[in-house]
Design goal:
Layout (H helix, E strand, L loop, with lengths): L5 H4 L2 E6 L1 H4 L9 H16 L3 E6 L2 H6 L11 H24 L5 E6 L1 H5 L1 H16 L3 E6 L13 H11 L4 E6 L5 E2 L11 E2 L1 E2 L4 H4 L13 H13 L3 E6 L5 H6 L6 E3 L5 H12 L4 E5 L1 H8 L9 E6 L6 E5 L5 E6 L4 H7 L7 H5 L13 E3 L14
Parallel strand pairs: 1-2, 1-5, 2-4, 3-4, 5-9, 8-10, 11-13
Antiparallel strand pairs: 6-7, 9-10, 11-12, 13-14, 14-15
Helix pairs in contact: 3-5, 8-10
Length: 387
Amino acid sequence: MTTASLLERAQRVVVKVGSALLVDEATGNVRDGWLQSLADDVALLRAKGTEVVIVTSGAIALGRTPLGLRGKALRLEEKQAAAAAGQATLIHAYQDALARHGIGVAQILLTLGDSEARRRFLNASNTLDTLLKLGVVPVVNENDTVATQEIRYGDNDRLAARIAQMVSADALVLFSLDIDGLYTADPTSDPAAEHIPVVSAIDESIARMAGKPKGHGSGGMVTKLLAAQICMAAGCHMAIAPGRADNPLKKLLNRETRCTWFVAADEPVTARKRWIAGSLNPKGALLVDDGAAEALRHGKSLLPAGVTAVEGRFDRGDAVLVKDAHGHELARGLSAYASKDARLIVGHRTVDIEGLLGYRGRNEIIHRNDLVLTRTGGADPREEHGR
Protein backbone atom coordinates (compact mmCIF):
# COMPACT_ATOMS: atom_id res chain seq x y z
CA MET A 1 0.00 0.00 0.00
CA THR A 2 1.40 3.42 -0.95
CA THR A 3 1.05 6.46 1.31
CA ALA A 4 -1.14 8.05 -1.36
CA SER A 5 -3.78 5.38 -0.75
CA LEU A 6 -3.74 5.42 3.07
CA LEU A 7 -6.60 7.91 3.38
CA GLU A 8 -8.50 6.47 0.41
CA ARG A 9 -8.50 2.96 1.87
CA ALA A 10 -9.30 3.98 5.43
CA GLN A 11 -12.68 2.80 6.70
CA ARG A 12 -12.56 4.94 9.85
CA VAL A 13 -10.79 8.31 10.00
CA VAL A 14 -10.18 10.79 12.82
CA VAL A 15 -9.67 14.43 11.76
CA LYS A 16 -8.11 16.92 14.17
CA VAL A 17 -8.84 20.62 13.64
CA GLY A 18 -6.65 23.20 15.35
CA SER A 19 -8.00 26.37 16.95
CA ALA A 20 -6.09 28.67 14.60
CA LEU A 21 -7.75 26.94 11.63
CA LEU A 22 -11.27 27.19 12.95
CA VAL A 23 -11.30 30.61 14.63
CA ASP A 24 -10.39 33.89 12.94
CA GLU A 25 -7.79 35.58 15.13
CA ALA A 26 -8.86 39.10 14.18
CA THR A 27 -12.58 38.70 14.90
CA GLY A 28 -12.72 35.80 17.33
CA ASN A 29 -15.43 34.19 15.18
CA VAL A 30 -15.67 30.87 13.36
CA ARG A 31 -14.15 30.84 9.86
CA ASP A 32 -17.50 29.78 8.48
CA GLY A 33 -16.51 29.37 4.83
CA TRP A 34 -13.60 27.12 5.73
CA LEU A 35 -15.75 25.02 8.08
CA GLN A 36 -18.38 24.61 5.36
CA SER A 37 -15.68 23.32 3.01
CA LEU A 38 -14.51 20.83 5.66
CA ALA A 39 -18.12 19.64 6.03
CA ASP A 40 -18.19 19.09 2.25
CA ASP A 41 -15.07 16.94 2.59
CA VAL A 42 -16.57 14.92 5.45
CA ALA A 43 -19.67 14.28 3.33
CA LEU A 44 -17.40 13.18 0.47
CA LEU A 45 -15.62 10.66 2.69
CA ARG A 46 -18.88 9.32 4.10
CA ALA A 47 -20.25 8.88 0.57
CA LYS A 48 -17.23 6.62 -0.05
CA GLY A 49 -18.19 4.55 3.01
CA THR A 50 -15.66 6.08 5.43
CA GLU A 51 -16.70 6.82 9.00
CA VAL A 52 -15.40 10.13 10.40
CA VAL A 53 -14.67 11.44 13.89
CA ILE A 54 -13.70 15.10 14.37
CA VAL A 55 -11.48 16.22 17.24
CA THR A 56 -11.64 19.99 17.45
CA SER A 57 -10.11 22.87 19.35
CA GLY A 58 -11.67 26.32 19.51
CA ALA A 59 -13.96 26.52 22.54
CA ILE A 60 -11.66 28.81 24.54
CA ALA A 61 -10.98 31.05 21.52
CA LEU A 62 -14.72 31.37 20.80
CA GLY A 63 -15.59 32.04 24.44
CA ARG A 64 -13.18 34.94 24.93
CA THR A 65 -15.24 37.63 23.17
CA PRO A 66 -18.61 37.15 24.92
CA LEU A 67 -16.83 37.14 28.30
CA GLY A 68 -14.67 40.18 27.51
CA LEU A 69 -11.46 38.16 27.78
CA ARG A 70 -9.85 38.92 24.42
CA GLY A 71 -6.35 40.34 24.26
CA LYS A 72 -5.09 39.04 27.60
CA ALA A 73 -3.36 36.02 29.03
CA LEU A 74 -5.90 33.83 30.79
CA ARG A 75 -5.66 32.20 34.19
CA LEU A 76 -6.80 28.57 34.43
CA GLU A 77 -10.23 29.48 35.79
CA GLU A 78 -10.69 32.06 33.02
CA LYS A 79 -9.76 29.46 30.39
CA GLN A 80 -12.35 27.12 31.89
CA ALA A 81 -14.98 29.86 31.86
CA ALA A 82 -14.15 30.71 28.23
CA ALA A 83 -14.37 27.02 27.31
CA ALA A 84 -17.82 26.78 28.89
CA ALA A 85 -19.02 29.86 26.99
CA GLY A 86 -17.44 28.85 23.70
CA GLN A 87 -18.34 25.16 23.62
CA ALA A 88 -21.97 25.83 22.68
CA THR A 89 -20.89 28.06 19.78
CA LEU A 90 -18.38 25.45 18.68
CA ILE A 91 -20.79 22.51 18.52
CA HIS A 92 -23.50 24.60 16.86
CA ALA A 93 -21.04 25.62 14.15
CA TYR A 94 -20.36 21.95 13.35
CA GLN A 95 -24.08 21.13 13.54
CA ASP A 96 -24.95 23.85 11.05
CA ALA A 97 -22.11 22.97 8.66
CA LEU A 98 -22.91 19.25 8.52
CA ALA A 99 -26.70 19.69 8.54
CA ARG A 100 -26.49 20.87 4.91
CA HIS A 101 -25.53 17.30 4.05
CA GLY A 102 -28.12 15.70 6.33
CA ILE A 103 -25.39 14.56 8.73
CA GLY A 104 -26.00 14.64 12.47
CA VAL A 105 -23.34 15.38 15.06
CA ALA A 106 -22.84 14.40 18.70
CA GLN A 107 -20.73 16.27 21.23
CA ILE A 108 -18.16 14.32 23.27
CA LEU A 109 -16.10 16.01 26.01
CA LEU A 110 -13.20 14.06 27.51
CA THR A 111 -10.33 14.49 29.94
CA LEU A 112 -7.00 12.67 30.07
CA GLY A 113 -8.34 10.43 32.83
CA ASP A 114 -11.11 9.18 30.53
CA SER A 115 -8.53 7.52 28.30
CA GLU A 116 -6.22 6.26 31.04
CA ALA A 117 -8.80 4.60 33.32
CA ARG A 118 -9.77 1.36 31.60
CA ARG A 119 -13.48 1.45 32.51
CA ARG A 120 -13.90 5.04 31.32
CA PHE A 121 -11.86 4.24 28.22
CA LEU A 122 -14.20 1.33 27.47
CA ASN A 123 -17.32 3.45 28.10
CA ALA A 124 -16.08 6.22 25.79
CA SER A 125 -15.03 3.68 23.17
CA ASN A 126 -18.45 2.01 23.19
CA THR A 127 -20.24 5.37 22.94
CA LEU A 128 -18.12 6.51 20.00
CA ASP A 129 -18.54 3.17 18.23
CA THR A 130 -22.32 3.29 18.71
CA LEU A 131 -22.54 6.85 17.35
CA LEU A 132 -20.56 5.89 14.27
CA LYS A 133 -22.80 2.87 13.65
CA LEU A 134 -25.82 5.20 13.93
CA GLY A 135 -24.41 7.39 11.15
CA VAL A 136 -23.49 10.34 13.37
CA VAL A 137 -20.22 12.31 13.29
CA PRO A 138 -18.83 12.56 16.85
CA VAL A 139 -17.27 15.97 17.53
CA VAL A 140 -14.77 15.61 20.36
CA ASN A 141 -13.03 18.24 22.48
CA GLU A 142 -11.15 18.26 25.74
CA ASN A 143 -13.41 18.98 28.71
CA ASP A 144 -11.59 22.16 29.70
CA THR A 145 -14.36 23.27 32.06
CA VAL A 146 -13.51 20.54 34.58
CA ALA A 147 -9.96 19.50 33.69
CA THR A 148 -7.13 20.90 35.80
CA GLN A 149 -3.48 20.85 34.79
CA GLU A 150 -3.10 17.43 36.36
CA ILE A 151 -5.86 15.78 34.30
CA ARG A 152 -5.53 17.64 30.99
CA TYR A 153 -4.15 16.41 27.70
CA GLY A 154 -2.85 19.94 27.22
CA ASP A 155 -3.19 19.63 23.46
CA ASN A 156 -5.69 18.10 21.08
CA ASP A 157 -3.03 16.28 19.06
CA ARG A 158 -2.65 13.64 21.76
CA LEU A 159 -6.38 13.68 22.43
CA ALA A 160 -6.95 12.91 18.75
CA ALA A 161 -4.46 10.05 18.94
CA ARG A 162 -6.23 8.59 21.97
CA ILE A 163 -9.57 8.86 20.13
CA ALA A 164 -8.04 7.10 17.13
CA GLN A 165 -6.92 4.37 19.51
CA MET A 166 -10.39 4.18 21.12
CA VAL A 167 -12.25 3.71 17.83
CA SER A 168 -9.59 1.53 16.13
CA ALA A 169 -9.24 4.15 13.39
CA ASP A 170 -7.29 3.38 10.24
CA ALA A 171 -5.99 6.92 9.87
CA LEU A 172 -5.64 10.15 11.83
CA VAL A 173 -5.13 13.49 10.07
CA LEU A 174 -3.72 16.36 12.13
CA PHE A 175 -4.58 19.63 10.39
CA SER A 176 -2.74 22.77 11.44
CA LEU A 177 -2.69 26.30 10.05
CA ASP A 178 0.55 26.04 8.08
CA ILE A 179 2.52 22.95 9.17
CA ASP A 180 2.91 20.60 6.21
CA GLY A 181 4.80 17.85 7.98
CA LEU A 182 8.06 16.93 9.66
CA TYR A 183 11.38 18.47 8.62
CA THR A 184 14.96 17.57 9.44
CA ALA A 185 15.15 20.93 11.27
CA ASP A 186 12.94 23.93 11.93
CA PRO A 187 12.26 25.26 8.39
CA THR A 188 11.48 28.75 9.71
CA SER A 189 15.06 29.17 10.95
CA ASP A 190 17.05 26.69 8.84
CA PRO A 191 16.76 27.13 5.05
CA ALA A 192 18.53 23.78 4.56
CA ALA A 193 15.78 21.86 6.40
CA GLU A 194 14.39 19.01 4.32
CA HIS A 195 10.78 17.79 4.30
CA ILE A 196 10.26 14.14 5.31
CA PRO A 197 7.28 12.59 3.46
CA VAL A 198 7.19 9.19 5.23
CA VAL A 199 8.16 7.97 8.70
CA SER A 200 7.93 4.26 9.47
CA ALA A 201 9.46 4.37 12.97
CA ILE A 202 10.07 7.10 15.54
CA ASP A 203 13.61 6.75 16.84
CA GLU A 204 15.92 9.23 18.54
CA SER A 205 16.95 10.82 15.25
CA ILE A 206 13.30 11.54 14.39
CA ALA A 207 12.52 12.78 17.90
CA ARG A 208 15.40 15.28 17.73
CA MET A 209 13.79 16.91 14.70
CA ALA A 210 10.85 18.19 16.77
CA GLY A 211 10.93 21.80 17.95
CA LYS A 212 9.20 23.65 20.77
CA PRO A 213 5.48 24.57 20.67
CA LYS A 214 4.79 27.90 18.97
CA GLY A 215 1.90 30.30 18.52
CA HIS A 216 -1.47 30.35 20.27
CA GLY A 217 -1.95 26.60 20.09
CA SER A 218 -0.78 24.41 22.91
CA GLY A 219 0.65 21.87 20.47
CA GLY A 220 3.72 21.83 18.24
CA MET A 221 5.87 19.20 16.56
CA VAL A 222 6.75 17.63 19.91
CA THR A 223 3.10 16.83 20.67
CA LYS A 224 2.53 15.69 17.09
CA LEU A 225 5.31 13.13 17.41
CA LEU A 226 3.83 11.94 20.71
CA ALA A 227 0.50 11.55 18.91
CA ALA A 228 2.21 9.61 16.13
CA GLN A 229 3.72 7.20 18.67
CA ILE A 230 0.29 6.52 20.15
CA CYS A 231 -1.23 5.99 16.70
CA MET A 232 1.49 3.75 15.33
CA ALA A 233 1.35 1.55 18.43
CA ALA A 234 -2.40 1.24 17.87
CA GLY A 235 -2.00 0.28 14.21
CA CYS A 236 -3.25 3.65 12.94
CA HIS A 237 -1.53 5.68 10.22
CA MET A 238 -1.17 9.41 10.89
CA ALA A 239 -0.68 12.44 8.66
CA ILE A 240 0.54 15.92 9.58
CA ALA A 241 -0.92 18.23 6.97
CA PRO A 242 -1.65 21.94 6.40
CA GLY A 243 -5.31 22.89 6.57
CA ARG A 244 -5.42 26.63 5.85
CA ALA A 245 -6.92 26.27 2.37
CA ASP A 246 -10.55 25.27 1.81
CA ASN A 247 -11.37 21.57 1.37
CA PRO A 248 -8.25 20.30 3.17
CA LEU A 249 -9.36 16.65 3.23
CA LYS A 250 -10.20 16.66 -0.46
CA LYS A 251 -6.81 18.15 -1.25
CA LEU A 252 -5.15 15.43 0.81
CA LEU A 253 -7.17 12.78 -1.00
CA ASN A 254 -6.21 14.24 -4.38
CA ARG A 255 -2.50 14.42 -3.45
CA GLU A 256 -2.57 18.22 -3.80
CA THR A 257 -1.13 18.72 -0.32
CA ARG A 258 2.39 18.00 0.88
CA CYS A 259 2.34 16.18 4.21
CA THR A 260 4.15 13.65 6.34
CA TRP A 261 2.65 10.20 6.80
CA PHE A 262 3.57 8.12 9.83
CA VAL A 263 2.95 4.57 8.64
CA ALA A 264 1.95 1.92 11.19
CA ALA A 265 3.23 -1.62 10.81
CA ASP A 266 0.04 -3.27 12.12
CA GLU A 267 -3.65 -2.95 11.37
CA PRO A 268 -5.83 -1.46 14.17
CA VAL A 269 -7.51 -4.68 15.27
CA THR A 270 -4.24 -6.59 15.23
CA ALA A 271 -2.52 -3.99 17.40
CA ARG A 272 -5.45 -3.87 19.84
CA LYS A 273 -5.48 -7.63 20.19
CA ARG A 274 -1.74 -7.77 20.73
CA TRP A 275 -2.24 -5.25 23.55
CA ILE A 276 -4.99 -7.40 25.08
CA ALA A 277 -2.98 -10.61 24.74
CA GLY A 278 0.34 -9.43 26.03
CA SER A 279 0.05 -6.22 27.99
CA LEU A 280 -2.75 -6.71 30.50
CA ASN A 281 -2.85 -8.52 33.83
CA PRO A 282 -6.01 -10.66 33.97
CA LYS A 283 -8.19 -9.99 37.02
CA GLY A 284 -10.29 -13.15 36.80
CA ALA A 285 -11.45 -15.93 34.53
CA LEU A 286 -14.51 -17.21 32.68
CA LEU A 287 -14.94 -20.95 32.18
CA VAL A 288 -16.75 -21.95 29.00
CA ASP A 289 -18.34 -25.09 27.63
CA ASP A 290 -17.18 -26.94 24.51
CA GLY A 291 -19.70 -25.22 22.28
CA ALA A 292 -18.57 -21.76 23.30
CA ALA A 293 -14.92 -22.75 22.93
CA GLU A 294 -15.55 -23.89 19.38
CA ALA A 295 -17.47 -20.69 18.59
CA LEU A 296 -14.54 -18.59 19.84
CA ARG A 297 -12.16 -20.51 17.58
CA HIS A 298 -14.35 -19.46 14.66
CA GLY A 299 -14.18 -15.77 15.53
CA LYS A 300 -17.42 -15.43 17.48
CA SER A 301 -18.09 -13.34 20.58
CA LEU A 302 -18.50 -14.97 23.99
CA LEU A 303 -22.16 -15.06 25.03
CA PRO A 304 -23.38 -15.64 28.60
CA ALA A 305 -25.06 -18.90 27.60
CA GLY A 306 -21.67 -20.50 26.91
CA VAL A 307 -20.10 -19.55 30.26
CA THR A 308 -20.24 -22.13 33.02
CA ALA A 309 -18.45 -20.35 35.88
CA VAL A 310 -16.80 -17.09 36.93
CA GLU A 311 -13.52 -16.94 38.86
CA GLY A 312 -12.14 -13.97 40.79
CA ARG A 313 -13.36 -10.40 41.22
CA PHE A 314 -13.17 -7.91 38.38
CA ASP A 315 -14.86 -4.77 37.09
CA ARG A 316 -16.37 -4.00 33.74
CA GLY A 317 -13.57 -3.44 31.25
CA ASP A 318 -11.01 -5.50 33.15
CA ALA A 319 -8.98 -8.15 31.38
CA VAL A 320 -9.98 -11.76 32.11
CA LEU A 321 -8.87 -15.20 31.02
CA VAL A 322 -11.21 -17.50 29.12
CA LYS A 323 -10.69 -21.16 30.03
CA ASP A 324 -12.05 -24.27 28.39
CA ALA A 325 -13.84 -27.10 30.19
CA HIS A 326 -10.49 -28.58 31.26
CA GLY A 327 -9.28 -25.33 32.83
CA HIS A 328 -6.79 -24.57 30.05
CA GLU A 329 -6.41 -20.96 28.93
CA LEU A 330 -8.15 -20.48 25.61
CA ALA A 331 -8.31 -16.70 25.21
CA ARG A 332 -8.02 -13.34 26.91
CA GLY A 333 -10.42 -10.44 26.65
CA LEU A 334 -12.08 -7.41 28.20
CA SER A 335 -15.22 -8.27 30.15
CA ALA A 336 -18.35 -6.26 29.41
CA TYR A 337 -19.63 -7.03 32.91
CA ALA A 338 -18.28 -6.86 36.44
CA SER A 339 -17.84 -10.27 38.09
CA LYS A 340 -20.89 -9.89 40.35
CA ASP A 341 -23.15 -9.27 37.35
CA ALA A 342 -21.41 -11.91 35.24
CA ARG A 343 -22.25 -14.53 37.89
CA LEU A 344 -25.94 -13.66 37.60
CA ILE A 345 -26.15 -14.08 33.82
CA VAL A 346 -23.83 -17.03 33.07
CA GLY A 347 -25.63 -19.90 31.42
CA HIS A 348 -28.54 -17.66 30.38
CA ARG A 349 -29.69 -16.38 27.01
CA THR A 350 -29.05 -12.77 26.02
CA VAL A 351 -32.80 -12.05 26.08
CA ASP A 352 -32.78 -12.84 29.81
CA ILE A 353 -30.07 -10.32 30.74
CA GLU A 354 -32.34 -7.34 31.41
CA GLY A 355 -34.63 -9.37 33.66
CA LEU A 356 -31.72 -10.79 35.61
CA LEU A 357 -29.79 -7.55 36.10
CA GLY A 358 -32.51 -4.91 35.98
CA TYR A 359 -30.83 -3.14 33.07
CA ARG A 360 -30.09 -3.91 29.46
CA GLY A 361 -26.38 -4.58 29.10
CA ARG A 362 -24.40 -5.83 26.13
CA ASN A 363 -25.44 -9.08 24.49
CA GLU A 364 -21.90 -10.41 24.71
CA ILE A 365 -19.97 -11.00 27.90
CA ILE A 366 -16.83 -10.45 25.77
CA HIS A 367 -17.21 -8.97 22.29
CA ARG A 368 -15.01 -10.54 19.62
CA ASN A 369 -13.25 -7.17 19.07
CA ASP A 370 -12.18 -7.28 22.73
CA LEU A 371 -11.01 -10.91 22.67
CA VAL A 372 -7.89 -12.67 21.40
CA LEU A 373 -7.30 -16.39 21.23
CA THR A 374 -4.18 -17.52 23.08
CA ARG A 375 -4.58 -21.23 22.28
CA THR A 376 -6.18 -22.85 19.26
CA GLY A 377 -6.28 -26.61 19.16
CA GLY A 378 -2.70 -27.81 19.63
CA ALA A 379 -1.12 -24.38 19.23
CA ASP A 380 1.11 -22.93 21.89
CA PRO A 381 -0.31 -20.29 24.23
CA ARG A 382 0.04 -16.64 23.10
CA GLU A 383 0.51 -17.75 19.48
CA GLU A 384 -2.68 -16.19 18.10
CA HIS A 385 -2.38 -12.41 18.18
CA GLY A 386 -4.14 -11.56 14.94
CA ARG A 387 -7.67 -10.76 13.93
